[in-house]
Amino acid sequence: MTRVRLRRWPAFCDVRQDRPCLWTAVAKDTSLIVFSLQVVAPDERRTALLRALGALLGPTRVAPGCLDARLYSDLDGRRTLLFVEDWESREQFERNLDTAKLNAIVSAIELCSEAPVVRLDAVERAEGMDVLALYQGITPDVQ
């Protein structure tokens, strides 16, 4: 495990207002991997694209190392779809990216009216509701 010292917002939160508050977080040695594919579908191909990307969700979600797989539709730009996968490690992501899955992704991209946005992000640390409380100085009370 690696200890990381981070500055907390606001930068000067000490009662005397003369020194920054620091807190220590424990970071994992491995990074969470987030794969995302953003596509724009013409109206006449939107249903086919939703089916093509939606068909990837089930097998991906049960794959070893997959934390989550989701498909979103932008409420404002109805034609924009976002496919997202979260993985425990890059090795597990790569192990799942076989020829059949690559072909399915390429087939989905071919239905698009614009160039896709493909990202593979390594997230070093993920935090939840507690981080909001940290910044606001409140205790989360989620029921």
TrEMBL record:
Q: Where is the signal peptide?
A: none
InterPro entries registered for this protein in UniProt: ABM_dom, Dimeric_a/b-barrel
**One of this protein's Pfam families, by short name?**
ABM
Q: Where is the ABM domain?
A: 41-102
The name under which this protein is listed is ABM domain-containing protein
**Origin organism of this chain?**
Bradyrhizobium rifense
